[in-house]
Amino acid sequence: MTESWTPPKGIDPDRPSPARVYDCYLGGTHNFAADRAVAAQAVAAMPQLPEIMRANRAFLRRAVRYIAGEGVDQFLDLGAGIPTEGTVHEVARQVRPDARVVYVDVDPVAVIHSRSILAGDPNTEVVQANLLDSGAILTDPAVTALLDLDRPVGLLMVAVLHFLPDSPALFGALEHYRRALAPGSYLVISHATAESEPVPTAKVSDLYTKVSQPLVPRSRSDLSHLLEGWELVEPGLSQGADWRPDPGDPPPGDVGKLATLAAVARRP
Ligand SMILES: C[S@@+](CC[C@H](N)C(=O)[O-])C[C@H]1O[C@@H](n2cnc3c(N)ncnc32)[C@H](O)[C@@H]1O
Fold it and tell me: Is residue 3 part of a domain?
């Protein structure tokens, strides 16, 4: 198949990346043959994956709308991915037209695309960084110029923490973000879980681990541990599709519903 776009300089199109594989599930065009091959294998193991990803995006939109409705007008989106319909700044600005958003991703393709789409928007910034480098992110001039960390921030880690196995670096970074953000800040997470569909989830995890980076599903109790120090907003840690569903959201099937856990929590 002919590529619809040329790989930006320095990017290896033959090495699959989670950002571009995710773009495949969502029907995007910012992916290469190697990414599409992984997406096809993953969908063969778990046919509901595109539905799960669409439900994840719908959860992200509802969570951002909720937080903006609580008065938060600045967002730090870690593991933001390749911009797709209903990006964080678009959704936040429906509620807070002055909303400012910093998008962070480790993947150069996600960063290049975000920069080209957001060029000329003075209220968004894009930073290439590993979310484990919390010190570097929180002091990055692009972050400190746009976000006032003395005021509440919406911190988003949506469909990204499952790429980070348990480690002192992960726990340290999560603690650092929590302490650095002002009371009244919010954390949004969504995360793969193997609780309902262990066999297909294990197949998808193995595939990611072989071709790009480990994918680590977590249980409800693992996630409760990652959320320590935050106060869960009702309905708490839930299946993503059950977190304050909108009447207009397409109801996912059972597996699509169960494969992801999600939460919004407030910094007391
Ligand atoms: C499945 S996508 C999720 C995108 C978006 N948050 C969403 O839910 O629609 C995961 C993203 O996390 C990024 N990512 C993975 N590990 C990361 C890390 N350690 N630091 C920052 N970004 C990371 C990937 O490059 C990818 O763009």
Answer: no
